[in-house]
């Protein structure tokens, strides 16, 4: 039975051998149709990950903000003809913090088998190393940009930290990282702790947990470095 | 600088090549002190993962409900003498749904570097394949056993699903899986959907998403099979 296969890709410039199991490459080479966000980076990622099939024989189906829902409705048709389809993200694992779940949702509704493969998730790597509660945690995506919405979200999440013992995780557009850290350090309760996890899987990796106000002194330079922010008590 | 290294292990009986990057084995063989939940399974897991160092030279430090906090306070001492320490879970990635964060918390407070390695998380594999929102999700651990507490938790989570668009994830002791599925299918709003993800990474893997009430008809047999439950609208 043909299926939808979820292929993680490396998070950054790291050697794929640090973040992908050997089995993924084996499965990758049996697959010749891929749903991707951007064809250029997908070609490059396939090559990096050891794809040996001639790339000109590969069918790429683009899934991004320019794709018409009408087209997407047909993306899984080849599965009925016995062809496996691969879904790849731009970085990390697909369907987490990216629009891939449009496709998995459609597959689930059609009763199509889905095979998720193991790969790097900066969210989980950060959580593992934060020292925070890993038995109860939430990933909240991007915080609102306007200060009022941002403050109101932070108040809600701080309640969940203290009442439910739930670690709160989010990300920010990398050029706004420094601003977000300053905002968090200034507005969280002083005994709330912040973990900053930056450049995961890279040699410059930095993962540090401190109390909110401590981050106001000599903060790290996070500008344009992919960073995960975690909050806990 | 010596550091604390977080080593994932396979989730179940799968070949480690399906769930661990080659780099992990390389790092594993440089490490001769391990903090583990159970020494017997840790020895078995080291062997499976291709550990070649003589196992009798390895120091194991046990971390479980019998360990005294006084002992734990000294577990990271070898790092000051220049020895890396590995932290392994019983299955899957450490510090997520296990007590490993006692150790990472202590490391963070002492300014010790932590290196989290990539590996299989049944929570993330389930989320990827569920079709549910991966841009906002929460893992809630085990639900309470008493029906009243269980119902009250489910009502809270259902609010977060519909108001915050947040996918809700939990696990159950495997011998209570069938009972939990029946409870969820009966008590959730009819338009709430449940994804059942069972035996992840194994040939018997089963990942299906349906509306709550549909699970009352011909439910799968989950008894003693490791299963992740996910809820969304």
Structure in words:
Two copies of one chain form a homodimer. The first copy, chain A, has about 230 residues and is α/β, with parallel strands linked by helices. Chain A folds into two domains: about 5-115, 3-Layer(aba) Sandwich (Cobalt-precorrin-4 Transmethylase, domain 1); about 120-230, Methyltransferase, Cobalt-precorrin-4 Transmethylase, Domain 2, CATH 3.30.950.10. Helix content of chain A is about 35%, strand content about 20%. Chain A has nine helices and ten strands. At the A-B interface, helix 1, helix 6, strand 5, helix 7 and strand 6 of A face helix 1, helix 6, strand 5, helix 7 and strand 6 of B. Strand 6 (about 135-140) of chain A pairs antiparallel with strand 6 (about 135-140) of chain B, so a sheet runs across the interface.
What is the H level of CATH, i.e. the homologous superfamily of the largest domain in chain A? Tetrapyrrole methylase, N-terminal domain
CATH-defined architecture of the largest domain in chain A:
3-Layer(aba) Sandwich
Please trace the helix and strand order of chain A, writing H or E for each element. EHHEHEHHEHEHEHEHEEE
- Look at the structure and give the CATH class of the largest domain in chain A: Alpha Beta
What distance separates the N and C termini of chain A? 48 Å
SS-based class of chain A: alpha/beta
């Amino acid at each position: 039975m043909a299926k939808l296969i979820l292929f993680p890709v490396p998070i950054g410039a790291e050697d794929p051998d640090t973040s992908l199991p050997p089995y993924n490459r084996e499965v990758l080479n049996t697959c010749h149709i891929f749903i991707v966000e951007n064809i250029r980076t997908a070609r490059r990622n396939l090559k990096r990950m050891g794809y040996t099939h001639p790339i000109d024989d590969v069918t790429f189906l683009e899934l991004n903000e320019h794709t018409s829902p009408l087209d997407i409705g047909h993306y899984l048709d080849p599965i009925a003809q016995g062809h496996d389809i691969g879904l790849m993200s731009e970085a990390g694992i697909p369907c987490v913090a990216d629009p891939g779940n449009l496709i998995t949702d459609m597959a689930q509704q059609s009763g199509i088998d889905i095979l998720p493969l193991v790969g790097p998730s900066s969210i989980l790597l950060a959580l593992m190393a934060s020292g925070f509660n890993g038995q109860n945690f939430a990933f909240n995506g991007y915080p609102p940009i306007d200060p009022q919405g941002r403050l109101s979200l932070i108040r809600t999440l701080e309640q969940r930290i203290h009442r439910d013992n739930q670690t709160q995780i989010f990300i920010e557009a990398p050029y706004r990282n420094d601003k977000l850290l300053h905002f968090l350090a200034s507005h969280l309760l002083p005994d709330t702790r912040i973990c900053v996890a930056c450049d995961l899987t890279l040699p410059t990796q930095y993962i540090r947990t401190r109390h909110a106000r401590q981050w106001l002194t000599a903060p790290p330079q996070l500008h344009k470095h992919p960073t995960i922010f975690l909050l806990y008590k």
